[in-house]
Known about the structure:
Elements: E1 4-8, H1 12-26, H2 37-44, E2 55-64, E3 67-77, E4 88-95, H3 99-114, E5 120-123, E6 125-126, E7 132-133, E8 135-138, H4 154-161, E9 165-176, H5 192-195, E10 198-202, H6 208-223, H7 234-247, E11 253-258, E12 261-270, H8 273-276, H9 287-297, E13 302-310, H10 318-335, E14 343-350, H11 354-362, E15 366-377
Parallel strand pairs: 13-14
Antiparallel strand pairs: 1-2, 2-3, 3-4, 5-15, 6-7, 8-15, 9-14, 9-15, 10-11, 11-12, 12-13
Amino acid sequence: MADIKIVPVKGLGAFLEFCRVPRLIYKGQKGFSPPLDAERWTLHGSKLNPHFKSVDWQAWLAYKDGKVAGRIQAQIYKDVVPLGASPAQFGCLDCIEDEAVFAALLETAETWLRDRGASLVHGPFSPSIWSEMGMLVDGFSAVPMFLMPWNPSYLPAMMERRGYGKARDVISYRYVISDKDKTNTPGIIARPEWRERLKIRTLDLNNIKAEAALIVDIFNDAWRENWGFVPFTHEEFMASADSLKYVMPPEGGFMVELDGVPQAFAIVLPNLNEILADLDGKLLPFGLPKVVSRVRNHQYKSMRMALFGLRRALHRKAVGGAVILAFIEECRRRARQFPSVEHCEFGWVLEDNLGMRRPIELSGAEIDKVHRIYGKDLSAAAAPRAAAA
């Protein structure tokens, strides 16, 4: 009989191992690109990520025969109820292909949540809807993108065997940069009826604190009616804003204004996975100089739209369509400044957010990845294949 232990994460050593788990157990698997340990520390560190102020939480490590075999985290929101979703959630679920280890991890998290009154759980949120969410169920052969979660194909099947069912899917699109995109042709902003009404400006990275309030306001307004929404705080944005200056190209962020009022914004990041894969997550002692040099000099083949927001009042309106069209045209215009880029990923679009999906699909983008958020009724008796809403 294998010796399986589930151990709460306590202390610095256990935390550092928790952050390393994916690269320890997935190393060498096709599609996996190990994230930098230092970036994981800022994401999962309760003293570095303001998200943890809003939840009660606990994380665990799994060991099989003395070797690390997986991890999981559980959390319950204190004062906020996610729109349509449970305040009881799990995340950071990674595991070797072993049913017993996987079951032990989930049962530990479920028991912790039940003991705190939870009757329904959703996840994975790692650790929140504003960081990495969902389990990859389609697109395992797609290009791995920076800050996008990856898991092996066996995990979804094991989830379903533990009684978890689909709650929502979130979709990522692949937009291939064509020769037409690289041609400078007049767009909607050149039309007489929009020339004075639509303006586009680049985000001021040297004054990111001033930009932050506007970005957070638009972002929350755009998402407030979407499933799973919890307010994105100014503190959460600023926790990662300073690093944007080092990884986002000068033309990577812009604001669309209509009649002098900011209505939409976008932040596009280069796919840093292209320059990080051979570092195995380690910056020291030799990784940091390599990263600095590569960020400045690498000719990226792919990019990702990391953040996007369009004010809710413009959704499904003709004037909103004009803003979206201007936005897409601006993405194409800026793509011409990066001749090596072959495609851009538009990510995290809820499957039922047709107001966003339709314009993206009309632009020619195609579905590239699907991540699934699962749910399970914790109040019901355990059943092998129970449904979850």
